[in-house]
Automatic annotation (TrEMBL):
Taxonomic superkingdom: Bacteria
InterPro entries: KH_dom-like_a/b, OsmC/Ohr_fam, OsmC/Ohr_hydroprdx_reductase, OsmC/Ohrsf
Protein name: OsmC family protein
Species assigned in the record: Escherichia coli
Length: 185
């Protein structure tokens, strides 16, 4: 793998960010936003919106990235994009990569690679209303983490993986109740 693909974050930048938020806790208040529009059938087209930090909007990301969500044909879609479950796994994988890279940097561990395999297990009998005893969402999410580091022991890498649940914001969001407000605008 090319060296430019190695997971890396500047440990000094992590320290400086922590210090800045420690001195001004309101800097820790961040809101990500997305805008979505039906794209035909059950598909949706999404674009990134403004990033708001401490009440101040940064519009430089608005419309910068777009995503299409759909379902496979077997699940009533037209397979024009990644499924919502796959996007959820992408969010968790992205957060795990950020978290692992940041934790490793703080511990002075240089990672050579991070490879993740994620699985979203769902029983459609719940979603389809065929069995009220089955939840509509995931029955479970499984993640296999493969880390490589020429300078770290297996024990150090295992410790990084054990620390993921306590440090990943997306893991925390999925594992714990969070208020979701949905309304007709």
């Amino acid at each position: 793998m090319c060296a430019s693909y190695k997971p890396y974050v500047d440990p000094d930048a992590v320290r400086q960010t922590k210090e800045a938020v420690s001195k001004q806790p309101e800097l820790g208040n961040v809101a990500f936003s997305m805008k979505g529009k039906s794209a035909g059938g059950i598909a949706v087209r999404m674009e990134t919106g403004a990033l708001v930090q401490n009440g101040v909007a940064d519009n430089s990301r608005a419309g910068k990235f777009s995503l299409t969500g759909d379902e496979p044909v077997a699940l009533l879609g037209t397979d024009t994009g990644v499924s919502p479950a796959e996007y959820l796994l992408m969010g968790l994988a992205g957060c795990y990569t950020v978290t692992l890279t940041t934790l490793a940097a703080a511990k002075g561990i240089e990672l050579d690679s991070i490879d993740l395999e994620l699985f979203f297990d769902i029983n459609l009998n719940g979603f389809l209303g065929l069995d009220d005893s089955v939840r509509k969402g995931a029955q479970g999410i499984r993640v296999d983490v493969h880390l490589e580091s020429t300078g770290a022991t297996r024990e150090q890498l295992e410790e990084l993986v054990r620390e993921l649940p306590a440090n990943s914001p997306i893991h925390d969001t999925l594992a714990n109740p969070v208020d979701i407000t949905t309304r007709l605008a």
